[in-house]
Specification:
There is one protein chain. By secondary structure, the protein is mainly α. The chain has one domain. It has three helices and no strands. The chain is globular and about 45 Å long. The two termini are about 30 Å apart.
Length: about 90
């Protein structure tokens, strides 16, 4: 394990970065929970390939998005789909 010294500023920045990522991940989880009522947990019945194809589609949509709101929505979907893929891999 590395024993690299980091400054207080670097430590504060890393903490801020972790908090930003946690906020983004919680936003994606919140979006998933909101949609759960109508979609249930159907992702669990989809194959890894199906989820991956959906993720690729969302990533392409991010690139085509015309507004920040559209980008945010598509990024949230991509984050949730990535988490679903991780969950699938952890099941194996």
């Amino acid at each position: 394990m590395s024993h690299m010294k980091i400054s207080k500023e670097e430590d504060a920045r890393m903490t801020e970065s972790r908090n930003k990522l946690l906020k983004a991940m919680m936003l994606a989880l919140g979006s998933y929970i909101e949609q759960e009522a109508k979609k249930l947990d159907q992702w669990r019945d989809q194959s890894f390939g199906q989820l991956y194809a959906h993720l690729k589609h969302e990533i392409a949509e991010i690139g085509r998005s015309k507004t920040k709101t559209q980008q945010l929505h598509n990024c949230i979907d991509a984050c949730a789909l990535s988490a679903m893929l991780i969950a699938k891999l952890l099941e194996e």
